[in-house]
Structure formats: C-alpha cells, structure tokens
Amino acid sequence: MILTINGQRREFADGATLADLIAATLPTDRGVAVAVDGEVAPRGTWASVALRDGQAIELLTAVQGG
Amino acid sequence: MSDELVVAGEKLGSRLILGTGGAPSMQVIDEVLAASGTALCTVSMRRIDPSTTGSVLDVLAHHGVRLLPNTAGCRTAREAVLTAQLAREAVETDWVKLEVIADDDTLLPDAVELLDAAERLVADGFKVFPYTNDDPVLARRLQRVGCVAVMPLGAPIGSGLGILNPHNIELIVAEAEVPVVLDAGVGTASDAALAMELGCDAVLLASAVTRAQEPALMAVAMASAVAAGRLAHRAGRIPKREHARASSPTTGMAVL
After folding, report:
1. Cβ of A32 under 8 Å from any chain B Cβ?
2. Pairs of residues, one from chain A and one from chain B, whose beta carbons lie less than 8 Å apart
C-alpha cells in the first residue's frame, strides 16, 4: 500500500499498523504525536491501528518556536 | 515578600515567559534559559525532521522549565484544536498557547476563529492561553469561555514596535480576572518594563531575545525589566502633572 508520511509517498506492506510504521520510520517514539487523515491517533492506539492504502500520516514533535 | 505568578492554579517562579523561536542554536537557547531564569517556555509542533540532532525538549528539561506548546501557524479553529491535541500527546501537558492567525503579513489573531477554538479547547480540558488582539472586548469574551489567561499583543509578532496601544492594555488589565500576559511586540527592555507598569502579570517574548546581537545579555535585561516594572506597578507611580512640583522644602528659604 502507498501511504503519505509527512507529505512524502512511501510504500508499506499491507497490514502494517501505525506502531509498525513508527518503528520503521523514526529512531525514537519519545515526544512524538501522530495524526492519521486529520485525526489524532493517541499513543495507546498505535499498535491496533491498521493502516489502509492512501492514508495520510503526520508525525510531529515539539520544536523551538513561539 | 512573595509575589509569585499563579496561573491555572500553578505557581511560576518568573514573570518572564520565553519563546524559543528564532534562536540560532540550541546552545543559545541554553544560555538564554540560564540567563533569564524563566520558568515557562513555548514550543511549536512541526513535522519530525530525522536529520535534526538534539531536541529543544532536552534543553528545556535540563533547566526544569515548564512547556507551553503553541498552535503557531494555524489559520482555523479546526487546525488549532487538532494541533493542541497533538501537542498534548507529544509533550503531555494540557497547557496550550492558542494562536490562530489571519495572514502572514500581520500575523494578527483571527478573532472569530480564536474564540471558537478557545471554547472547543476549554471543553476538551485544555488550559488555554490565547494570543489575542489588544481588544478589551475580545479579552473579556475569551475569559468568559474559560481561558486561564489572556495574552494581548503589544504590537505584531516579531515587529519589536513595543506597546502600540497602552490604553487598551490598561483596560484589559482593569477588568481581567485571570492573569494578563503581554505577548508579542516587545523590542527592548523598556517595552517589557512598561507592560508590567501597566499592570500585566507577565511578559511573553521571543525574538527580542533570540534575535538580539547578544541573546543572553538581552535575556538578563528582560528579566530585570520585568522585575523592575512589576515592582514599580506594585509601588504605585506618582501622578503625572502639568507643572513642576518642588521636592526640596519650599519653606524656610533664606532671604538673600
């Protein structure tokens, strides 16, 4: 399946969960927040969120600002 | 004499709140935090950049500074609410500096979207610190929906123009039942002192320090100005007069 992660299209194995995607994409999940198709995906749900072709995932963290 | 700022039921050890944006490096942030003695700092939510080394969160944690995530860059209530919820996930705080701006030229708050977002976030359990226009009526409405502070601008973000409408800031302070934080527009120490003399409870600034030629030195200047302005406010200034009034005795003058 094709997912859009932080604006970039990437291929992932069918059946991957959000937890799989985060483990494969980021060196750490500390301080990370995730939105799937414009909705917050709470940390506790990552392992149970099965991703579907065409979804848009935003991986965010706090940076300097304000 | 204890004169701590209490906001959302929490005591803060400093009335200077710092934004971390605009600093050229993590080392500068580290120096500024040490120099300013601030207890609360804003951060922004952005896409993770895997090439970045070092996290601002580590630097802030090292100084024991509380986090105030912002919704900078959001244009609609929907975006701002979602960004606040993501910040709550990422940094595990229900405090949020709510910014909903109208356009890139002025970065002025969009009052309609701001109030809508504030109401939704309060309902969702957030402690909302709204960045607002210097409009006493909007400040009143934001308090009415349950914001824990109001943060009127002195001048547009990053402009360094100071406090363009001190009268409105005084009006906001006069009827506020929550802390008033002068947010944005501060250019130099006298602006921060003026904010406190007008009765603000705290000052939030970023660029004035992070983009100063000597950020750590300016951080000390700002901390001193905020403290001095607060003391002057509490002490009660003399009324302004049209004519001079002698401070030396006017009786007992020698006839020469």
Report:
1. yes
2. 92
